[in-house]
Amino acid sequence: MNKEISVYNKLYDVVRRNLFVLGVVAVLSILVAFLNVYLIKFEKEITDAAILKNKGLFKGLLIGVLVIICLKIPVEYIKAYLFGKFAEKTLMDLRIEISKKLIFSPINFIEKNAAGDFISRLTSDISIVAGFFTSALDQLLYHPVVFIIGLIYAIHLNWKMTLISFAIIPITILIAFIISKPVERFTKKQQDLYGNTNAIFQDIISGISVIKVFKLERYFYKKFENSLLKSFSEGLKSAKVETLLEPVKTIIQLGPVLLVILTGGAMVMKKQLTFGGLMAFIELMNIFIAPMNILPNIINSYRKAAAASKRLNEILSQYLEESGSEKGFDEYEYAVEFEDVWFSYENDLEKAVLKNFNLKIKRGEKIAFVGSSGCGKSTIVKLILGMYKPQKGCVKVFGIPTSRWNLYSLREKISVVNQDIYLFPDTIFENIKYGRYSATYEEIIEAARKSEIHEFIMSLPRGFETELKEGSVNVSGGQRQRIAIARAILRSSDVYIFDEATSALDADSENNILKTLNNSLKGKTIITIAHRFSSIKNVDRIIVIDRGTVAEEGSHDDLLCKKGIYYQLYTAQLMNELV
After folding, report:
1. Is the pLDDT of residue 29 over 80?
2. Domain around 550
3. Same domain, 312 and 338
4. Can you give the CATH number for the domain in which 270 is found?
5. Where a domain ends, among 290, 316, 342?
6. Alpha-helical segments (H) within 166-216
7. Nearest to 550 by CA among 398, 347, 371
8. Per-residue pLDDT, 6
9. How far apart are alpha carbons 507 and 263 in whole angstroms?
10. How many domains does the chain have?
11. 169 and 287 share one domain
């Protein structure tokens, strides 16, 4: 049980923000429970008064019943409203907290999980927790209270009848706990499998063109179907357990009532109990049976919520991305420095991507990284941005280690254009404006001109207000790159990183943009990662990366004269172009 309680620790941090409202609901639940039991007491007395034909007492009691009903209706309304407010506010806070964790968590947490799995947690798992908050928790607050108050009155009314009617209840509670135990395990496994299914479906949507080209429709359909069947199998196991709970609920519902009618009827005939007392006991049985009847459902709902909470807890327990407080030196000589850097994505230096990596890039210098795929070029960019920390050594930006930088300030000084461009499903204007949201209209237009996308945008019927579709499928790859370059230019940063930023452009368009960028970004530090060597001939320095280290460096001509790795890569590409 302690383990299950610990699952809710992070959720409790969210829930306790609204504990005051829940406390008021608990108080109102006690009041409603008291009024309901008191109403049964009045019904007993009014029945006895009617049998005795005592009109005066009957009228007085009838007025009392009306007063209780008039009190009960507004109290129940306020209770229901406040509980609804508590549930909705708590769920909103939970969604906000999960979104915050996903947005501000370290990138390695996001990269090691499938997007479809996150979507499953944000939809299916939260839906299960919501079911517990909006239904089971309300019942959990009210029914135990009314049960206790009703039990006190029942003992006062006739303790023998109370003992007889409760004989079957402990057995049924135990059976409900035992039968519902596997539900949590099945639900947890089912939700994990649904996360995997969602991830597969997202892969299908994202890679639909590849699937069509390589005729993979049947393969992915079968893969998705098999994953769904596994989820269905676990859901069926849970459903079988839930089905077994139905007979238990029936026994709970009918057993005590039958005992009350049999024993109570005998007591009335022996004048050990009034007829009003028997009617009161039957009413009390509804109060006793209701929590016993819903107990299996509450336990079942709790089990499912516990399983879903474990998956949500993996997000909620994530630490936010660590950020320092320093903001760099304005006049420092070097823009970027790598000092004896070792880095591995798996925290295993035997599998290091960068090994004893050393490099200094001066402020205002234009450099290019080249090397074979997987040599560590894109990893260097992530380390400069502070997305990852090296296991050994130090990465400095403007003289300050990235671990001490205020990450917001650090990334404000750096603009990045990646090969895999992501544009938001928003207007072209907004997508460029994301580079610097305080930019004026004129600055956005100028950035579009510099990236040579302005003419294309103005040719569109809605111009800058054109809505980009999901995945930017209504613009070409080259147009996407130009919009992304405009966004980076607008940022007006000190360091610009172009990671295969012009790979979708033809040679002439690439040369035109590079000339424009060189003119508009004078004095800025420019880092280029490129496979097309024609785009980096005029940089100040070319850095050749091989197996995670700096193998060669120098100008284009110097490296060709050395006839080393760069020479081999350059001539191989030249031969491919000629062929």
Report:
1. yes
2. 334-578
3. no
4. 1.20.1560.10
5. 316
6. 169-206, 208-213
7. 371
8. 45
9. 96
10. 2
11. yes
